[in-house]
């Protein structure tokens, strides 16, 4: 399975839609997209991972790198994920304490807006 990437703007938040597998082969494409969005001044990102079927350590590294990049601009990077097998990876690695993980894109946007 390949990786499909798309993104759109909702208010001041850029939504990144990821579908497929984020692994050592495909993660560089996600990394490039996140870097490009930040370089264009998008510092509030929501990565929708609802259609992600596989995530490895390289993919986790890309997400953490994206988080560091937006935080350097006082930004945010939240995730949308409800799939147990993907959530388990975030729990095992302790990254549930680092990322805001939400059930829907709207929930992620609303949570940031209420801060």
UniProtKB/TrEMBL annotation:
Q: Which domain of life is it from?
A: Bacteria
Q: Which UniProt keywords are present, listed alphabetically?
A: Phosphoprotein
Against PROSITE patterns, the record matches this protein to: STAS (PS50801)
What's the stated role of this polypeptide?
A: Positive regulator of sigma-B activity. Non-phosphorylated RsbV binds to RsbW, preventing its association with sigma-B. When phosphorylated, releases RsbW, which is then free to complex with and inactivate sigma-B.
Chain ranges of the STAS domain: 3-112
Respond yes or no to whether keyword Amino-acid biosynthesis is given for this record: no
Q: Which SUPFAM superfamilies match?
A: SpoIIaa-like (SSF52091)
Decide whether keyword Lyase is in the record. no
Q: Which GO terms describe its molecular function?
A: anti-sigma factor antagonist activity
Q: Which family does it belong to?
A: Belongs to the anti-sigma-factor antagonist family.
Q: Which organism is it from?
A: Nocardiopsis kunsanensis
InterPro entries from the UniProt entry: Anti-sigma_ant (IPR003658), STAS_dom (IPR002645), STAS_dom_sf (IPR036513)
Name of the molecule in the record: Anti-sigma factor antagonist
